[in-house]
Amino acid sequence: MRRWPCGGCRRLRVVGRVAEAALLCSPPVDPRLRAERERFIEAARKADDDAALYALKVEFLGKKGSLSKLRSVMRDLSPAERKAFGRDFNTVKDEIEALIDARRKELAKRRRAEELARWEDVSVVLDPVPRGALHIVTQTWRRLERVFENMGFTVHDGPHVEHGKTNFDDLNIPPDHPARDMQDTFFVVPPTDDGWERVLRTHTSPVQIRTMLAGPPPVRVVALGQVYRRDDDATHTPMFHQIEGLYVDRDVSMADLKATLYHFVSAVFETDLDVRFRPSFFPFVEPGAEFDVRCPFCKGDGCSVCKRTGWIELGGSGMVHPAVFEAVGYDPEEVSGWAFGFGIDRMAMLLHGVSDLRLLFDGDQRFLEQFPC
Ligand SMILES: [Zn+2]
Fold first, then answer.
1. How remote is the CA of residue 280 from the centroid of ligand 1, in Å?
2. How many whole angstroms from 299 Cα to the centroid of ligand 1?
3. Distance (Å, whole) CA 284 – CA 324
4. First and final CA of the chain: distance in angstroms?
5. What is the pLDDT confidence band of residue 10, given thresholds at 50, 70 and 90?
6. The sheet that has 154-156: what strands, in order across it?
């Protein structure tokens, strides 16, 4: 039993069914109306589907319905009695309509509950919803971005399908350079309208060119992104991720480069790590150097990751070649700058102790789930 406010006087009273809250707490005075009302309430309690409710509505409120027929008694009443009877008649009629409506809703609710009960067992403990995570390369990518942004660099990107001039010539990579060989480069056909080859960028360095063409020095940018080469083995994939840094201003030196790389590796590996240069050649820098970082795993004592050398090769770097400055309209007598680049995938492997590059690209969930972010 439940207590429910009367729709008329709002007083709380006990009702047999929730639907009966539609009934007022004061029944009509006229015994015939009262009897019809009681008969209807009893019948409505037994009506268990919409069809039965509809039949009840016809039986009581239809043109020839029992309640409608009572209307005829009004003829024999005095005006005052007729007024009272009419008011009660309308009230009972409203109550019956409201009760039918409420019962219909009650039945629909019950049907829905029964339906749910068939499909749903609330006692079943479901597996927790599996939570996704960023790919290990994306995690590393964002970590690198954060470190360089904190050092005052801005992040730039360029198109993946690159103009041959921007990808090679402007970077002082002459037409006979091995990097332009069919073995290394994915060429895209057709070539550009002005006859230049169109390639999938083989490095992020074209972003340097685009950035310098876009405005005067000083320039302090990093570019992260996918690059493409025709390579596929345990340590190479045809698509891989590179990060490139470029700093151009007056009086920029190798010392700035070394300090920047030192701060960068220490921030990424969260410990102070030495950086060293080894002379090397890259067409777009002069002098050029490969840079190594002190092995973060053994701190230089020698371990399997650093192949007992105490150092890990990370990438290439150097002072921007005057020919590159000339290609973008910068005066090499006025400004100097450095650039560096290395693989984000290799950095991800180092940070997480992954030994095979291909694991990063296989999409094997058993592997990926080990690196929640
Ligand atoms: Zn080591």
1. 23
2. 6
3. 7
4. 54
5. low
6. 154-156, 219-228, 239-249, 336-343, 311-320, 285-294, 275-280
User: What mean pLDDT comes out for the span 33-46?
Assistant: 88
Rounded distance from Cα 224 to ligand 1 centre (Å): 27
Number of domains in the chain: 2
Q: With bands split at pLDDT 50, 70 and 90, how would you rate the model's confidence at 298? A: confident
CA atoms within 13 A on the CB side of 198: 11
Residue 84 CA, ligand 1 centroid: distance in Å? 102
Whether residue 49 is predicted with pLDDT greater than 60 in this model: the reply is yes
Domain containing 236 equals 136-368
Answer with the residue of higher pLDDT: 134 or 16.
Answer: 134
Higher-pLDDT residue of 290 and 23 is 290
Residues 259 and 361 in one domain: yes
Q: Which of 89, 119, 149 is the last residue of a domain?
A: 119
The domain boundary residue, chosen from 66, 89, 119: 119
Distance (Å) from CA 294 to ligand 1 centroid: 8
Ligand 1 center from residue 265 Cα (angstroms): 15
Query: Which domain CATH number covers 144?
Result: 3.30.930.10
The model's pLDDT over 109-140, given as tens digits with 9 standing for 90+, comes to 988 888 888 777 777 777 778 778 899 999 99
Distance 270 CA to ligand 1 centre (A): 16
Same domain, yes or no, for 80 and 180?
A: no
How many angstroms does the Cα of residue 114 sit away from the middle of ligand 1? Answer: 66
| Whether residue 60 sits in one domain with residue 143 | no
149 and 265 part of one domain = yes
Report how far ligand 1's centroid is from the alpha carbon of 239 (Å). Answer: 28
